[in-house]
Amino acid sequence: MSSTKPLRIGFIGTGGIALNAHLPAWQACPDTEIVAVADVSEEAARKFVIATGGQAQVFADYRDLLRLDLDAVDVCTPNKVHTPAVVAALEAGKHVLCEKPLAVSTGEIEAIGAAVKSSGKVLMSAQHLRFTPAARAIRDWADQGNLGEVYYARVQALRRNLLPARPGFTDVSLSGGGPCFDIGVHALDLALWLMDFPTPVRVTGTTRVNFAKGHKIPGLWGNWSREAFSVEDFASGFIHFDNGATMAIETSWLGHQQENEVMACQLYGLEGGVKWPSTEFASTTGTTFTQGSLTSSANAGKPHHEVVKAFVASIREGIPPAVPWTETLKVIAILEAIYRSAREGREIAIDATP
Ligand SMILES: NC(=O)c1ccc[n+]([C@@H]2O[C@H](COP(=O)([O-])OP(=O)(O)OC[C@H]3O[C@@H](n4cnc5c(N)ncnc54)[C@H](O)[C@@H]3O)[C@@H](O)[C@H]2O)c1
User: Which H or E run contains 349?
Assistant: First the structure.
């Protein structure tokens, strides 16, 4: 029997991702217990508590939950609630795991960073693609010098008709943006992590609503209000980094393509090139091209399970979080600049130093 004192966990936001991905991950994590939940929807909170099979306390307002004696909170609300909930939780002395995107502006990330510094608590955003076996295999291969300096990257988060038909995603006041933030953040964070996070300096971008106001492409995830839809359904961007590298990024919820979803990145390095998630690589030995696919010896756990394990390891072992806010600052600076470039019709210079 373990002698480790269980970590007391509270949930803020108990909807889809909390129920389907975070709850199973916490349940698989030893020496942790979910003791309280907060959600503005009592129905969502009750459903979640039943799924825990426990007796967690239920709150409508997360500020009441934060008065409890908790070790950590897991924030799974719509994007625009992340920053106030994360900052309040850090200020209340809790460690914080938060869904992506951690925040929807660099100003918000800086506020979170200040709260991390003054609280001394662990803050990690759940960028679960970093924990996929394919990503771990590429990271290991790159760490052995097989990729070299990356001079160009192609990043795609393109869906055919998978539009999350809930106001938390389609109402800009709750989400901060459409697919650019929602799924662009996944592929962009992964690519930057595999590139060792070069510093972005200039961005051009475009955002468009091509289909979401009409009915030409029906959503596979149900219907949404065409009138209230206030984000983009397509965005693209081009990014310059301080080391001379460049990147193209493409994101959409609706579009004419055969695949339901293309979530991918391709990195071109001076020693080799590689694709995620296929792990196909190309390289040269002497003057001969070599190619193949990487096999992962890394953990094969479900990515969200690995996220929770990494977060708990940071708390228990006092090690830096696997996804620090200083890295997320660069990710959000790029996405924020894509929107700004689209609005202002020009290239945007950015400073993403913490
Ligand atoms: N990692 C992934 O692959 C992935 C997938 C889906 C969603 N997400 C992220 O997870 C977050 C939640 O998405 P979801 O799909 O679970 O949405 P959801 O709409 O299913 O759930 C959000 C929940 O938050 C609650 N909520 C709203 N405002 C609140 C507040 N002020 N205080 C407490 N609770 C509040 C809602 O009532 C709802 O129950 C989003 O940030 C989203 O980007 C990540």
Answer: strand 348-349
